Amino acid sequence: MESRKVAVITGGSQGIGAGLVEAYRRLGYAVVANSRSIAASSDTSTVTVAGDISDPAVADKVIATAVGTFGRVDTLVNNAGIFIAKPFGEYTQDDYDNALRVNLGGFFHVTQKALAQMETQGSGHVVNVTTTLVENANSNVPSALASLTKGGLASVVKSLAIEYAGRGIRVNAVSPGIIKTPLHAEETYDTYAALHPVGRMGTIDDVVHGVLYLEQAPFVTGEFLHVDGGQSAGN
Prior knowledge:
Blueprint: E1 6-10, H1 15-26, E2 30-35, E3 46-50, H2 56-70, E4 75-78, H3 93-121, E5 124-129, H4 144-164, E6 169-176, H5 189-193, H6 204-215, E7 224-227
Helix pairs in contact: 1-6, 2-3, 3-4
């Protein structure tokens, strides 16, 4: 087992998650990355665990793999999530079930396991990836189901930050605007760029830099870092 720091990243196979895996490796962390269909890594300091993070057995395996392979869990980034943009009346039962299962269930089980491990170490950091639409709804992007579920991830940050503050564990969130990821078709870029006061969409690197700021700010806990091109400031 090794003594260096270890990051666990969910939704780690593409987009923001893949960018976070690379970033934490550059910081010298070992990484355990999870997604439903993530491939094995050729990097001996990156271990992948395939499976649905909303399944408690998968969540158990992810944290057990981090502890068994690298000896500890220093950071958990809850990045896995789905976004379904529909008018509220058009959401189906499957839409609702999937959003709760992935966005909330995927957070709940792995975070419980990670916090239990962090408590034994006396230190740790949890970062939730939410969306600025939770606080700043936009009539151009119907997002009630995202607000319902990602809003839960936002709401729990302060609660957990206070609950665990005396145990050396921090809990924060990044609140992105609309980010250029495989989730969005290229023909939508101009439309989405115009929704941000700075006039562009965010990049994966923008979100990664936000997470790394929180990682390297030991006096910051219970905080929401808006990486949203000014959306949260107004329009």
